[in-house]
Amino acid sequence: MFTLRFASLVVASSLCTLPSLAATESSYVYCDNGLRCFKAPCPSNSALDLGTGTIIKGVSIDPSGLPQADKAITDLSDALYAGKIVVRGSIEHRTQTITGKEYNLPWLVATRIVRTAKDSERKHCSSP
Predict the structure, then answer these.
(1) Could you read off the pLDDT of 62-113 as tens digits, one per residue?
(2) Cis bond before residue 41 (omega within 30° of 0)
(3) With b meaning 16 or more CB within 10 Å and e meaning fewer, what string describes 67-92?
(4) Pick from 25, 41, 43, 66: most CB atoms within 10 A?
């Protein structure tokens, strides 16, 4: 009886932790949208979530999680910042201090490059 209870507890606790691990990963087109500002935080970058169609404004990108082969692609061109590629990753919020004030800002944590972005997916890149 104890073994059956313990096994049920292990399975139940495993199921509770699984959704949080992969729930937030999606595909994004990240780019500089052309906006310029004089005071931080600045919404000069945005990311289109291809899964939901939501545009996240003022997001920064963290490419440190990309595999080495993908990093080589982004080092050789402006593909990452010009909205030319689709990246897989997740949005996380990080606290940053800018001119003495703390801000909770969105970051796109990229985990891999998926493909070239379509023109229709890059429309948000030049819109304010």
Answers:
(1) 988 899 888 887 665 688 888 999 999 999 999 988 888 898 999 999 999 9
(2) yes
(3) eeebbeebeeeebbeebbbbbbbbbe
(4) 66
CA distance 111 to 24: 12
The residue behind tokens 């699984």 is 18
Which tokens belong to 127?
A: 């819109």
For the full predicted model, state whether its pTM sits above 0.85: no
Summarize pLDDT for 57-70 with one digit per residue, the tens. Answer: 899 999 888 998 88
Two tokens, residue 18: 């699984």
Q: How many CA atoms lie within 13 A of 54 on its CB side?
A: 9
| Distances from the Cα of 79 to the Cα of 19, 24, 49, 75, 125, angstroms | 32, 24, 17, 9, 12
Phi-psi group of 105: left, alpha or beta (phi > 0 → left; psi -120 to 50 → alpha; rest → beta):
beta
CA distance 73 to 88: 15
Tell me how far apart the alpha carbons of residues 5 and 11 are, in angstroms, rounded to a whole number: 10
CA distance 116 to 85: 4
Instruction: Please give the helix or strand (H or E) that residue 102 lies within, else none.
Output: strand 101-116
